[in-house]
Amino acid sequence: MRFSTTFIALCSALLSIALTTGCGGDKVTITIDGSSTVFPITEVVAEEFNKQHPGVRIAVGVSGTGGGFKKFCIGEIDINDASRAVKEKEIAKAVENKIEFIEIPVAFDGLSVVANPKNTFLDALTVAELNKIWEPGSKITKWSQVRDGWPEAEMKLYGPGTDSGTFDYFTEAINGEAQACRADFTKSEDDNVLVRGVAGDQHSLGFFGFAYYIENKDKLKVVPIDPGTGGVAPTMETINNGTYTPLSRPIFIYVSKAAAERKEVQDFVTFYLKNAPKLVKEVGYVPLPQAAYDLALERFEKRVTGSVFSGKKTAGTPIESFLKIQ
User: Fold this and answer.
1) How far apart are CA 257 and CA 276, in angstroms?
2) Cα–Cα distances in Å, from 130 out to 105, 111, 324?
3) pLDDT tens, residue order, the chain (326 aa)
4) Where in the chain is the domain with CATH 3.40.190.10?
């Protein structure tokens, strides 16, 4: 069962209260926040880890990738879930606060464009058409304005909030610049809100992570994306082999180097990487090649800090090539 962001936040708040009042004082705590896209992976890893390590309390919040980095870069949390690479301004904030971090990719995601199943005319969208719909100042309000022959129906748009790494990645891939987007759409950091919006409106269009589409594919219609060579839908295969472009991406956890010196964090991150191939797939995401997990674990064990993904285009390049220690 997937819980709403509001519910998760409430649970995190209650956990913090319990900790400060001494409840369960015999347990150590790992604090995690950030991306709603990465949350399902971290959640299932935490559940499995706790079966072997019941003395560790893992508090996982969801405030969006950007919201998580705001906390991480001032030392408020141990780990940030991120659906995009860290930005230069976030690196600068971390440096300012003497926060060193280890960057760890944990899975591939295919950012999925979705419509209502009752939409019978939408067979695919080109990157140019997506740009036309979502670009800053777009005047597109009806489907007929996107392609000749499509109906005069009013289009309703749904997407992640501006603190979301998914929003950053989509806008950069489609509009050429992160955060560059029209403002008149229904936004939420809770992907379940977006699912309900698209599922409840025949002429809607939205986007979010692949796992949320897979979990709700009985309520949604995925839209193949045509980068100029024909429409390709997101699947485990097309995301992994890079043919689903330009919306395939790696997703990450960022671990504070100071936190990594604590045994419970060392054990958790090691468990995360060793069990990710199975657990990532279990929650609907695409595992990285085993060599990438091995290299990521080596980087963690050697405490290699900094970002090798910030500002880089990853499409078409084997992810292992980013992770090799120079």
Assistant:
1) 21
2) 27, 13, 35
3) 444 555 555 555 444 434 333 344 568 999 999 998 999 999 999 999 999 999 999 999 999 999 999 999 999 999 999 999 999 999 999 999 999 999 999 999 999 999 999 999 999 999 999 999 999 999 999 999 999 999 999 999 999 998 888 999 999 999 999 999 999 999 998 889 999 999 999 999 999 999 899 999 999 999 999 988 889 999 999 998 888 989 998 999 999 999 999 999 999 999 999 999 999 999 989 999 999 999 999 999 999 999 999 988 776 678 899 999 87
4) 5-108+251-323, 112-241
Integer Cα distance of 125 and 148 in angstroms: 13
- Judge residue 80's burial from the number of C-beta atoms within 10 Å of its C-beta, 0-12 exposed, 13-18 middle, 19 or more buried: buried
Enclosing H/E stretch for 58:
strand 56-60
CATH architecture of the domain with range 112-241: 3-Layer(aba) Sandwich (3.40)
Q: Which strands make up the sheet holding 28-34, listed edge to edge?
A: 56-60, 28-34, 79-82, 248-256, 101-110
Strand-pair category, 79-82 with 248-256: antiparallel
pTM of the predicted model as reported, rounded to 2 decimal places: 0.81
Topology of the domain covering 5-108+251-323: D-Maltodextrin-Binding Protein; domain 2 (3.40.190)
- What is the token pair recorded at 297? 């674990």
Buried b (16+ CB within 10 A) or exposed e, 233-271: ebbbebbbeebbbbbbbbbbbbbbeebbeeebbeebbeb
Task: Quote the CA–CA distance of 244 and 302 in Å, as a whole number.
Answer: 33
